[in-house]
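Box 3.1. Reading complex inputs
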Amino acid sequence: MDKTKVLKAIADETRLKMLTLLLRHNYCVRALANELELAEATISQHLKVLREAGLLAGEKRGHFMHYDVERSLLHELAGEIEALASIEREICRPEKRDDCPAADSKDCKKKGQCSDTVIEFCHGPKLHQDRPQGDCNRQEP
Amino acid sequence: MDKTKVLKAIADETRLKMLTLLLRHNYCVRALANELELAEATISQHLKVLREAGLLAGEKRGHFMHYDVERSLLHELAGEIEALASIEREICRPEKRDDCPAADSKDCKKKGQCSDTVIEFCHGPKLHQDRPQGDCNRQEP
DNA sequence: AGTTTAATTAGGTAGTTGCCTAATTAAATT
DNA sequence: AATTTAATTAGGCAACTACCTAATTAAACT
């Protein structure tokens, strides 16, 4: 699943309305256009966005297109957002990371204690003149 | 919660990365800019989008801004998408809707049986000449 | 009070999006 | 075979977005 693509697809008022309509009933393009007061071509383009995100499976039956919403993808997306929300805060432990120039977490505690190298590691290189003075804010409060 | 606003906010690769970084640690703007190889101003603007969607609570501590991710809003969003996915298909019962011109669901079953009025109700008015011939596709297969 | 500096805002540009009308395609009926 | 018609694609336009550099703001340290 292309998470960003799916999110972009539903991050639009019109497409969200279309989805909720299609979850309840079949609609032909003209019925959707009528319901949402938009041109048929506009609806067709929105359907394309939803289809290419994997949210709709289309099938032609008789004269009309019948679109089915891929509920499973929506469930999957909900799961991914839930997983994101469940990411836990990590305590910064310089001694556990060999790429951190601080010897241990004590080097990271109070303002003024950080060496220039540690500060540059935590805050990135200053663009202009010299290093900033300040505490490393990558750690827990 | 402004659902569309929150979705738009996270429907962006860069902002999604920023969120995952901020869920684990505090970062100052320059550290984020450094990590994501973007200008500080760009990061600041992305932070604004996330903040205005309600996803970040910012607080100035010493020299640096400390942003906290509103995990509760992410949970809420996941719930809303889950709810969307759980919308059930409804069977079209014209006799239950006084705005539907079909007498009962039999009027809606087979191709050719729909009157012009019912077709117009289901598919919307045809833009040009006359009515289409065809089955109503607003009902269950 | 003056200086430093993290963060934001202003201003500008290229690329994208959402809408329209008009033209085209493809399938079903006559 | 010719016609009808649902849906899509093409082309065009205004509004928005993501990025940049430069200017500004506001807070903290001399």
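In summary: The first strand of chain B starts at residue 56 and ends at 61.
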